[in-house]
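Quick review question:
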């Protein structure tokens, strides 16, 4: 069993060394929490996304696809509520200047001591002085920890001198402390927009801003800010923070061109962008990521049934590519967790090394989005069912705004999940009988970047030609095969174990005599001789099993 704390480090290291994931702009020192999917990462990501597309679109008559532009009309975001509401309240620690999300901060209980935990003794001394200067209290320093504070009411902290029972001073605090240091000395909550803003049009707004500032030097700070904001807003566009909205906006076009009848879905996958405050756990939460979302339009009143249907289907799908299906669960949202547009929601969660956390949300979004876009655009985003009786008039034919069930998955987050699921270390004997560790990525064969590696035992005697010919046959059959002649055969097997190649085919001296190759299974390491003429069919059958 691999220690959970070390597992992420091992995955990050293997991902870089084997070409799955690189730090973005690495030669310039890297861009924080931005990642590039390397030669094998791009294959794995595409395989996951193609499998999703297959199961959500190709295998369903009632789901159609869409690939919308990332930059949409700004009114889309006004209607969806993202412009106003796509904000999480942020707070700054007045001492350490740490900025964090108020809704994620730790909440101490009444009676708890508040210990401000610094990085080291030096920092503790600095913070002690800063607190003394600003709040006129001297906390006791115990190594890197500052003590003397206690929660005395839900929103009140008391300062207690050593060995005293009554507080010498009392301070208001918001009921939570900063996540890193545990400080209760915090700023007011501030709104912060999670959408990336850019400008559309060839003319740079900077020129207009410069003119405005020049002509309005007399304005105060707030008026100046409002004036500049107006100039920026006139040409502002936003990178989409979710793929979902385009499917509401294109509801009528998709429904009418494909003559879709309710219940039906529109699916889309692609990049989304969020100015995340906390980027964490490698690619788990980053600013640029990929989503796989589907909006499933249903008759009002049937949403509960469809929500459960999609929750179960999506959970089953994630499990179907996993070595540990019981590491996937679903969890119903509590009432106070629900987004403003949802009447119910399930999170599909995975057991990450840091504990269970979100992988996909399956939400019942009511008719909120279609109604909002209808209201803001003037378009009639409704559906007419000739076969149904209108519940209000009792007459045949019912026009209504469909309700929506949305399974919204992270493609890049899914990639991380399958890397974690696949990572195995096994103790095996080397050629000399010594114990060694074999690292093997047990990726589902349909997700594995290479399906098969073809390895000539030696680089001469016509073996490379036979191997290349076989690779050609695999490629023609649409199977991603890799020719590999570098290093000893054992090393090559290990290399392909580490990138999850399910099958290695070795061409040896006997191949020319018996027209056979050795097929080695990645997981069992079992080897058998098969006819070279059957190789493509055998691999194809095993991949589809
Ligand atoms: N349309 C609904 C929506 O976007 P969400 O829960 O915010 O819902 C859906 O996102 C999924 O997208 C999440 O379950 C997660 O897998 C992925 N996701 C969201 N934010 C992410 C981020 N910053 N980095 C990586 N994946 C993210």
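Suggested answer, residue by residue:
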């Amino acid at each position: 069993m691999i220690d959970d704390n070390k597992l992420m480090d091992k995955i990050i290291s293997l991902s870089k060394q084997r070409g799955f994931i690189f730090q973005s702009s690495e030669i310039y020192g890297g861009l924080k929490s931005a990642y590039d999917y390397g030669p094998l990462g791009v294959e794995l990501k595409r395989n996951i996304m193609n499998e999703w597309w297959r199961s959500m679109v190709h295998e369903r008559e009632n789901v159609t696809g869409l690939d919308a532009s990332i930059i949409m009309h700004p009114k889309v975001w006004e209607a969806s509520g993202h412009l106003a509401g796509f904000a999480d309240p942020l707070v700054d620690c007045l001492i350490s200047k740490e900025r964090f999300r108020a809704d994620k901060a730790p909440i101490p209980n009444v009676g708890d001591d508040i210990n401000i935990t610094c990085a080291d003794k030096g920092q503790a001394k600095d913070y002690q002085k800063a607190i003394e200067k600003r709040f006129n209290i001297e906390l006791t320093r115990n190594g890197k920890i500052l003590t003397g504070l206690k929660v005395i009411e839900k929103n009140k902290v008391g300062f207690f001198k050593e060995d005293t029972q009554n507080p010498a001073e009392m301070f208001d605090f918001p009921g939570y402390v900063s996540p890193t240091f545990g400080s209760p000395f915090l700023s007011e909550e501030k709104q912060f927009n999670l959408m990336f803003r850019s400008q559309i049009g060839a003319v740079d707004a900077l020129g207009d801003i410069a003119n405005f500032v020049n002509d309005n030097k007399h304005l105060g700070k707030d008026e100046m800010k409002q004036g500049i904001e107006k100039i920026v807003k006139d040409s502002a566009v936003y990178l989409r923070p979710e793929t979902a909205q385009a499917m509401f906006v294109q509801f009528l076009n998709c429904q009418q061109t494909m003559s879709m009848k309710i219940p039906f879905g529109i699916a889309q996958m692609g990049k989304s962008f969020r100015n995340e405050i906390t980027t964490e756990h490698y690619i788990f939460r980053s600013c640029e990521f990929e989503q796989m979302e589907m909006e499933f339009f249903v008759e009002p009143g049937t949403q509960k049934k469809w929500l459960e249907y999609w929750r179960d289907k999506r959970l089953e799908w994630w499990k179907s590519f996993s070595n540990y299906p019981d590491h996937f669960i679903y969890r119903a949202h509590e009432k106070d967790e629900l987004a403003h547009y949802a009447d119910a929601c399930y999170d599909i969660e995975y057991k990450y090394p840091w504990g269970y956390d979100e992988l996909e949300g399956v939400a019942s979004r009511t008719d909120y989005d279609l109604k909002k876009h209808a209201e803001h655009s003037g378009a009639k985003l409704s559906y007419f069912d000739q076969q149904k009786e209108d519940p209000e008039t009792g007459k045949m034919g019912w026009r209504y705004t469909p309700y929506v069930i949305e399974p919204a998955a992270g493609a890049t987050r899914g990639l991380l999940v399958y890397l974690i699921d696949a990572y195995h270390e096994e103790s095996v004997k080397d050629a000399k009988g010594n114990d060694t560790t074999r690292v093997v990525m047990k990726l589902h064969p349909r997700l594995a970047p290479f399906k098969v590696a073809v390895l000539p035992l030696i680089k001469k005697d016509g073996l490379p030609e036979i191997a290349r010919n076989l690779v050609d046959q695999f490629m023609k059959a649409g199977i991603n095969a890799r020719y590999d002649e570098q290093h000893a055969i054992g090393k090559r097997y290990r290399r392909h174990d580490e990138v999850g190649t399910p099958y290695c085919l070795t061409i040896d001296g006997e191949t020319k005599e018996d027209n056979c190759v050795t097929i080695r299974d990645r997981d069992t390491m079992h080897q058998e001789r098969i006819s070279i003429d059957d190789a493509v069919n055998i691999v194809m059958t095993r991949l589809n099993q």
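Why it works: Residues 39-58 form the longest helix (20 residues). The chain is about 30% helix and 25% strand.
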